[in-house]
Amino acid sequence: MATGDNSDTDPPQEPVEQQLGDAPELARLPGTERTKRFRPKLRWELIGCGLHGHELVGTDAAEVRLEDHLLVREADGLRWYRCLRCDSWLPLAPPRSPSNRFPPGRDQITLPLRGRPLRNRYVLRLIALDRVIHFFVLAALGIAIILFAGHQKDLRGDYLRILNSLQSSVGFVSSRNGFFREVTHLVSLSTTKLYLYGSAFSTYAAINAIEAVGLWRERRWAEYLTFIEVTLLLPLEIYELASKISYLKIGALVINVVVMAYLLWAHRLFGFRGGGSVDRLQHERDTGWGALERATPVPSQLPKPPPPP
Description:
Strand order of the largest sheet: 1-2-3
Helix content: 40-55%
Structural class: mainly alpha
Distance between the termini: 45 Å
Number of helices: 10
Number of strands: 3
Shape: elongated
Largest sheet: 3 strands, antiparallel
Order of helices and strands: HHEEEHHHHHHHH
Strand content: under 5%
């Protein structure tokens, strides 16, 4: 994949393997390599097939040609169809009522993601779900504060009466610590500040919604936006954790640090580890027909065509 403008004066592009410093070789198929005992490796292709089923083509073809060996092969009355995602070969009987004469050509097939691009899709969507949770929580807080600001006088009186009733009946309820301290501080704010806080929470919720949509669609601008947003709020989270430690704060801090590290390392933001150009080269290497051919058995194992009559 070219990283700049293509023109007649551009030098010829080297193979992707040479640009990445890797030698071309037969790829290891998902699930065939043994992993270390305490370091399990996720096979993203197998996860994808477990969730969505195998990606098979040519199951409705009447005949199989030799040039279809990447997709389907025939042996002993069975057809072996190759999953284009996880490279599993599945035996099925030929169709009784085929709707096509041959399997589709390469220009008619949309290959599923494999390798790093597939891993990135799943991880980015996990981060997108985290952003969705942030959106709902922040949006609820923003709406609640704005609604409270519109009826502040009535609600403040109701809250103080409830608090006094609890203090007289229960005794240990205090407005100086815990949940009641935060609520007491909130009801004592001016209406202007309440509207500002409500608007701030709502704006932050909208930013998280934009991030979630962009990450779900694997947009690079969303990766930058998420990284910058998490980085800017990191000092505030550390300050809050230093003032009072809680498991919720620790968990939120750990998740945000992991998100930052993943986006910076795996997606090479801001030119890190070669930047977007290297990221695009790896995407090209792990997807497309080239990746499929590298994971194909050697041609010497293919059935030979029948001799001419």
